[in-house]
Design goal:
single chain, alpha+beta, PmbA/TldD fold, 2 domains, 6-stranded antiparallel beta sheet, 9 helices, 22 strands, globular
């Protein structure tokens, strides 16, 4: 920062050191253990009113600043105002037990899952990743913030190949600490709850039907909203929600909140990667659009204030990014409901969607989706009767969320998203 003050107008920097440990089991056997460490600095400067960015994994500050200044000569004019020093909120982002856990303990977690999920004729794959990160953000306006974070991700997959039928069931645990016995039990139970009814293949239904989306099956429903609520798309004029702040566009039971202050979550942080203090941000509240997420650049261009949603890596300029998305009204703890979250009882004929193929492709922001199913179950007279294949679902998110059937009682964290199963009426289901 001293060099930036001497040679440019203003600037900010992110320093991050990351240690990663990975353990992988493939087909039930330990395949690999690996460790890696990386330290990097991302520097952004304003010189002559223009913005330049450079990154390095070396320790040559002179060279880094020189390259950032050179980048600014070709950069855009952006009136960024870097945040001054400010009190930061308290939030739990690290677990000492996870950071200090020896490799044999991490390996034992994987081996235990393999033993518990093993099935005749099935392949069991487990991966465990532990990351320890130290972050420091500072700028020429006086901000200087540091925090440590730990992330533990446990992925469990069960695959069955029977002729031309491929069954793939998976789930994951993500947290700041190592999974406890209850977390591991829930992970195993989740696999079993899906695997057993999936052994029977049934004919898919057709028509405009009630469909329950599990927490892991909600991506196609939420992705259009995530894009539309980004300050970048609002600035570009392509967000369907850009001019709708204050309007009730969705069912009054639907809310969406970004919460970087959720305790013990890997995406939580007291400050974003640009030095802006974190705050809980309602995006949709009881069906009403309340606001959008901004980083420093998009906020400056839009004449707004940053909401503390700037993210950056070692290389490249900062960008808008969510932290923890909360769908609906969050309740503490992992959900108690089984598959479907208690929403199946009133369905005469419909689907339960756990995974779709091709989510993220096409004109996502427009809200329309049409995807083949990867893992879905037919529901008849309130019961799961079997797994469906060669089926597709379609609809428009903005229309479907105007008439929510119900939320399930299986609310849970899935990576950086908290959600329960969601019943939507009138989803188009077709056979392929």
């Amino acid at each position: 920062m001293e060099l930036v003050r001497a040679r440019g107008d203003a600037g900010d920097a992110l320093w991050r050191r990351t240690e990663r440990t990975s353990v992988t089991f493939e087909s039930g056997r330990l395949k690999a253990c690996a460790a890696a460490e990386e330290t990097g600095v991302n520097l952004r400067v304003l010189a002559g009113g223009r913005m330049g960015v450079a990154g390095t994994t070396a320790e040559d500050a002179e060279d880094l600043v020189t390259r950032a200044i050179a980048s600014a000569a070709l950069g855009e004019t952006v009136p960024i105002a870097f945040p001054p020093a400010a009190p930061l909120p308290r939030v739990a982002t690290a677990s000492a037990a996870a950071a200090d856990a020896p490799l044999d303990r991490i390996t034992a977690i994987g081996a235990g899952l393999v033993d518990r999920v093993a099935r005749e004729g099935c392949q069991v794959n487990v991966s465990i990743d532990r990351e320890i990160a130290q972050t420091r953000v500072l700028n020429t306006a006086g901000a200087d913030a540091s925090f440590q974070a730990t992330v533990v991700a446990v992925s469990l997959d069960l695959a069955r190949f029977a002729g031309d039928d491929v069954l793939f069931v998976s789930d994951l645990y993500v947290g700041t600490g190592l999974p406890d016995a209850a977390d591991l039990d829930a992970l195993v139970r989740s696999i079993e709850d899906r695997y057993t009814p999936a052994l029977r293949v049934v004919t898919p239904p057709e028509g405009s039907l009630p469909v329950v989306f599990t927490p892991s099956g909600l991506s196609a429903i939420l992705l259009p909203l995530e894009q539309a609520l980004s300050g970048k798309t609002v600035l570009q004029g392509i967000s369907p929600l850009g001019a709708k702040v204050g309007e009730r566009l969705f069912d009054e039971r639907f809310s969406l909140t970004d919460d970087p202050l959720a305790s013990g979550r890997p995406a939580s942080r007291p400050v974003d990667d640009e030095g802006t203090a974190s705050v809980t941000l309602p995006l949709i509240d009881s069906g009403v659009v309340r606001g959008f997420v901004y980083d420093l650049e998009t906020a400056a261009r839009a004449g707004k204030a940053s909401t503390g949603h700037g993210a950056r890596g070692t290389f490249g300029k900062p960008h808008v990014s969510y932290s923890n998305l909360i769908v609906g009204k969050r309740e503490e703890g992992r959900g108690k409901g089984g598959l479907g979250g208690g929403l199946l009882g009133g369905i005469t004929d419909g689907l339960l969607i756990d995974d779709l193929i091709g989510v993220g492709q096409g004109n996502v922001i427009g809200g329309a989706f049409s995807h083949p199913v990867a893992l879905a179950f037919r529901v008849e007279r309130g019961e799961i009767t079997g797994r469906v294949k060669d089926a597709a679902v379609a609809g428009n998110v903005y229309e479907l969320l105007k008439r929510i059937g119900a939320f399930g009682d299986d609310g849970r964290w899935l990576s950086s998203r908290w959600a329960a199963s969601l019943l939507l009426e009138g989803v188009s289901v077709a056979r392929r």
